Structures are given as C-alpha cells and as structure tokens.
Write a sequence for this structure.
C-alpha cells in the first residue's frame, strides 16, 4: 500500500528542463539550436524585448522553439518581414552588390 501512496504523491507531468526539451525535440536537437538562434534575432528587434538581456532573449527563444510555438517557416517569415542591416542573412545583402 505504501507504493501506491508514494506513486500518488509524484506528479504525473513534471516541468521539463531545457535540456530535456532539446533532447526530445521532434525535429532533432541539431535543428533546434539554429532555429532558436534565428528566433532570438527576431525577438531582439521587437520593442517589447529591448529591456531583456541576451541570455533572457535566448532563453525565451529556446522555450518558444522547443515548446512548438515557432517553426522554421514562422521564424523565416518574421525574419524576412523586418531585416536589420542584413543581420538575419549573415550579411549577404551587404556583399551582394
């Protein structure tokens, strides 16, 4: 009976750490990091995130990506909507001409 009591005390779903979320990311952990980096660049340009540190923006971006709220399609769409000095495309526009 004590085993049942112990089992009922543990929550069925504990909050996942970022490390667990990365390892369990459906598209693969190696695609999550570049996507989060791109999303962090988009978030950094938003006025409501200007007060956040780089670490806070990266944490927010990781949570958005790993939580399934942002996909590559979304990130690319938002990045293309308001590029900042060619930063999103690694400066490709600066060297194109």
């Amino acid at each position: 009976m004590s085993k049942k009591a112990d089992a009922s005390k543990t929550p069925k779903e504990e909050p996942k750490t970022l490390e667990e979320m990365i390892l369990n990311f459906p598209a693969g952990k190696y695609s999550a990091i570049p996507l989060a980096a791109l999303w962090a660049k988009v978030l950094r340009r938003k006025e409501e995130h200007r007060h956040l540190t780089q670490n806070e923006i990266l944490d927010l971006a990781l949570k958005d990506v790993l939580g399934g709220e942002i996909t590559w399609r979304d990130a690319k769409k938002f990045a293309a909507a308001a590029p900042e000095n060619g930063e999103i495309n690694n400066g490709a526009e600066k060297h194109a001409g």
About this structure: Residues 29-45 form the longest helix (17 residues).
